Amino acid sequence: MAEQKILREGEITLGNNIIPCYVLEDGTRAISTNAMQKALGVTGNEPTQRSSKRLNEILSSKAVSRFISDDLLSSKLSTINGKWKGTTIKLYNAMALPDLCEIMLQVRDYSAANNLELGPRQKAVIAESDIIMRALARVGIVALIDEATGYQYERERFELQKILNAYVADEILKWQLTFTDDFYKEVYRLWGLPFIPKYIRNKPSFIGKLTNKYIYELLPRGVVDKIKENTGKTDKGNWRYKWHQSLTPEIGREHLRKQIIEVTTLMSISQSKAQFDALFQQKYNKKPVQLLLEFNEMVDDEPKGFDKS
User: Fold this and answer.
1) Buried b / exposed e along 271-293 (16+ C-beta atoms within 10 A)
2) Which pTM value belongs to this model?
């Protein structure tokens, strides 16, 4: 196992995790092995040894290992002994972090395309990987421009860290505010639609109409019109962004999150569409929802067994 002198040390912050980072005598940027697990969301309150085993289990799983090259294993996932003030620290090449994130996103895409089910730990690491890659990409372009223009010598010492923090927080917020599996599971259950990958990826058009009716129309008057105005549509008639991305973090998105939870709860205690509709009317003082309108606009290839009664 290689051993190198550590020239500089520091810290970066990814979400709620403080990640120790180092520069080695040969110029390699490195992070500790434990920091790698934290960054990928593997480490919780478990001891370091156990969390390391969790990461190895994920990387050696059949779903993930097919995407890991021998070169990555030998060059970036081989641990390095770094020497700092008389202490030996186990390190990974820092470039292994974005490489692993990219691999996990490949796993996500491959599994979705082939209707493969992933485990909860794999899904958690994929979610963290998506957040990290988006944030690093944005900070990367800032750093390149600063280097090209010479601004890197004028900027505040921790300015890039501030930018990274902002982007990571924004990506976490976007991820957290997507409609949860629980929301769609309850919709599919009540409307008799099987909760399988085919219909999760390509949701029938009536799902969007129900989402507008039960979620967005409960926002204050004028909000939906403003969201539509800010979002805009592509030449093909699709919305350019997810609607919730136009909402303010402190008020708008918090109101949306609350609405999703409330409606999901009402659906979960309902045995039928009619019962849910009655509970919805009772809570929000709404007129009966004309459910049949949505059914008339369903896609032609309705899944077998779909409840259209």
Assistant:
1) eebeebbebbeeeeeeeebeeee
2) 0.52
